[in-house]
Structure formats: C-alpha cells, structure tokens
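#struct-help
A.M.: can someone run this one for me? Single chain, 352 residues.
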Amino acid sequence: MRLRRSRTGTPVRRRAALVSMAILLPLGASVAGPVGTANAAIVDCRQCDLWVESDMGAIKSRVFRANDGNTNRVVYALDGMRARNDWNGWEIETNIAQALTRANINVVMPVGGESSFYADWNAPSTWGPGELGSSTGSSNGSSALGSSDAGAEVDGKANTYRWETFLTQQLPEALANRYGFSRTRNGVFGLSMGGSAALTLAAYHPQQFSFAGSFSGFLNNSAPGMREALRVAMVSAGGFNIDAMAPPWGPQWLRMDPFVFAPMLKANNTRLWISSGSGVPGNGDVSDALGVVQAVPLEALALANTRAFEVRVATLGGANAHFDYPATGVHNWKNWEDQVIRMIPDLGRNIG
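D.P.: on it. Structure tokens below:
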C-alpha cells in the first residue's frame, strides 16, 4: 500500500510521525545527530532520521532497523535522477523497507542528490547568466519521472556535489557510531541513475560493498549518444549541467562508466544483480498515457545499456553477476519494487 499524502504533498502518516517525534525529543528518542555523537537511547528505534554533516551541508538519511536487531547486514538504497530533498523515492513509492527488514537486513536510504549520479562532481552546476532553475511539474513523488520539490539553490548548485565521499566516508562513520553498523560487506542498489552509481561505489570501494544491484541502470555511458541523452535528462531533472559533473570523455567521466570499470567488479568478486524491463507495459506499470510515453523509451534505453553490460561481463568470464529480464516492465516503481523482492535472497547471502 502506498503512502496517503496530504494536500501539501507530505505523507499523512509521516506528518503524524514527525509530531510524535517532536513530543519524544525530551525523552531521549531524538533523531540522530552529527557524526561522532553517541546516543544509546536511539538504538531501539525501528525507523529513524539520521542527519550527518557533509561537504555539501547536513544530509538526511532514513534508517530502517533489521527485525532481529543485527548490525552487520546493511544495504544502501539509492534513488533515481529526480531524487527529492524530503524523502527517498523508495520510501515514498514502495514497501521495500518492510520486506528487507523482515529479511533481517538494515536499510539506509540517503535523501537528496537530484541528478547527482551520487558522484563527486568537478564543480558546482552553473550555466552562467540566466541559469536554469529546478524542474517543474508534480511534486507528489508518484513516479520516478516526477519532479523534485527542491528550489534552485539546492546542493550541487550552491556548492559542489560530493556524494561518493559522503556515502563512503561520512555516512558509514555516522552509522557505525550511532547504530554500530558494520562498514564492510554492505550492499548497495539503485534504480536508473542510482543503478549505475551502485556499481560505481562497489567497484571503487570493494571493502565496503560486497553486493551491488542495478535496476534499469545506464551501464554503458560512453556509448555513442549517451552523454547527450544524459545531458537532456539532467536538464529536465533539476536543470543540472552534466559538464559540471565530469568533463567529456576524460578520466573522470570514464571512471563513472560501468562498461569501462567492469573488470574491477570481476576482480573484486562483487556479487551483482542486474535487471531491466522489456519496455512493454505490464498490468499496473503505468497509470496514465503520459507515463507510458515517458517510461517506455527510457526503459528501452536502459535495456540496451544493460544488455551491452551483460555482454561485457560475459567476455570477462565473470560468474559473479545475475541478470534478470522480466517479460514486461517500464521505467517505473512497480518494476523496481518487484525486482528488489526477487533480489532479497541473493542479497542476504552476500552481505554481512
């Protein structure tokens, strides 16, 4: 069941939870503080906000504790290109947190990072005079194609995105200090933008991530036309300039391309779960004609990228990857939620 939202776009249940949290603050059930602080009272919280200082400012993550209370089985869930600054799309649109915690896996959902690819950027995203603003449209989070409700001065424009540093240094340190979470043999997965980012994090940080999952990810970014396709997508998703992320065709850009760094994933023996839908809508995949028009070509592009990456892995002789291609599925949350459920047993066997 999806979250019911108020007219302001805030989930009703969450608004109530925030009020309850405010009442409980004096009683020691506070949300987590900056890196390095300790608060034993929060150990028992099942669903928590963790604010962590970063090079970009304070970043919120949502933490869901495993049902059995373990601290060594941890997975990070990365959002898509239109990631919002209030909640992670996985929490807004799916029930994967409940499924994962029932499987005794702790879930960490970083919040924010629209169009960031969860990378350390080269510079703030600027366009000069008349800079493009953030995307417009619905902010209800009902689709991966929906808009962020961040304004023009979001992180990445007011300063430089440093998401890889945050996810591999500042956030895991805070999770270890606050909850005792292991910093090794974690999992990471994501959709679309978050899918390629998950593979990047695992490739360059193998001690932290032993498992990576990509759903409808863009895994062949150096293929002809891909940079310009991503440029258009990033302009649409918040008005971000891809040239601020990485100069064209240089080492920084190639470092972000799963097709290029695939040998590292094989050498690390990282367990991979890679999936893309067929681009054919299935029951419940889309709710309106506009959704079909947008989601079908995006999934077709992701499918072509994923197939190319599969061939690349096969030529390397890698037996560390599982590829899953549902007969139906477009670029939307139903497809990705189904894939997470299918992935859970494999994830559980390869983390912790």
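A.M.: thanks! The beta strands are 47-54, 57-64, 74-78, 106-110, 186-191, 209-215, 271-275, 321-324.
D.P.: also worth noting: Residues 289-315 form the longest helix (27 residues).
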